[in-house]
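Lecture 7 notes: from sequence to structure.
We start with the chain below.
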Amino acid sequence: MPLTGFTIIDSLMLNTLGKAMVGVISGTTYIPAVDNPESKRFVAAYQAKFNALPDNFSDYGYVAGQAIAEALKATNGDTAKDKFAEAMVKVKSAHRAARSVSIRKRTIRFRTSIFAR
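Predicted structure tokens for the same chain:
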């Protein structure tokens, strides 16, 4: 039975374990080899600043930052809880649109939660 994992086995783990990772099956949300313009720009900027390849957590932070920036644009910088939350729910990305909130060529959507107050 092959070793499997999700997310914890990422590109950094591959670099650390090298050949020991051959045959490991893993699902993940992002790797720096994603071949689209957004990812290439992200990887280049990340490497220039940190002298390392981005990992899943770098991607999460980058996409979250983009989503927050889009919500702030929609509220003209107003961070009042209800107004900002409403704007976050409306944030979504579509690579066909001018404003994009992803480096993975996927749509990002936020939805309201039954736990939101």
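Points to note: The longest strand covers residues 4-6. Helices lie at 11-17, 37-50, 56-74, 81-90.
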